[in-house]
Amino acid sequence: MKALSLRQPWAWLCAAGLKDVENRTWPTKFRGRFLIHAGKSSEIKVQGLGDAWITARLSGGNLTRYWNAELVRGAIIGEATLVDCKFRFGEENDNLYSRWHEAGMYGFILKDAKLYDFPVICSGRLGFFDPHIDVAPGYQEPIFETKA
């Protein structure tokens, strides 16, 4: 299965099913199930975004889940299905498929997300990639367990 690296907190929000669009500057023809890899850096630090931007898109119990989340980095934390890729042209509501879809970006439309109970340590890469999961000698292959 292919994997895609996302910076935190976007990786957790997508894997938890709270964010249904992943924004990218590039389109993809890939469709199907993929692993969500949490990159080692934080998007909030990179772009200077604050929690207010995220909390404006979450509500009630979802907001509580976000605040209580442990944002693991450098690991596969879940999976989702990419069902479409749409471009949003402007700030107006043209092509607005989700409140998470940013203007001037390609939105990877996600469905059926699952957050794993246990992260699987793995190095990330740019774009969709085949993950290489290192395991110690004698260790069984990890089983991707998902939260209900």
Care to describe what's here?
The chain is α+β, with helices and mostly antiparallel strands and 148 residues long. It has a single domain (3-124), classed as Archaeosine Trna-guanine Transglycosylase, Chain: A, domain 4, CATH 2.30.130. Helices cover 16% and strands 35% of the residues. It contains 4 helices and 6 strands, in the order βαββαααβββ. It has helices at residues 10-15, 43-47, 51-55, 60-67, and strands at residues 3-8, 21-24, 32-42, 75-87, 106-121, 128-129. The protein has a 6-stranded mixed sheet. Mean pLDDT is 78; it is low at 135-140.
The CATH topology assignment is Archaeosine Trna-guanine Transglycosylase, Chain: A, domain 4
Order of helices and strands: EHEEHHHEEE
Give a count of the beta strands, DSSP E runs of length 2 or more: 6
- The proportion of residues forming helix, as a percent range, comes to 10-25%
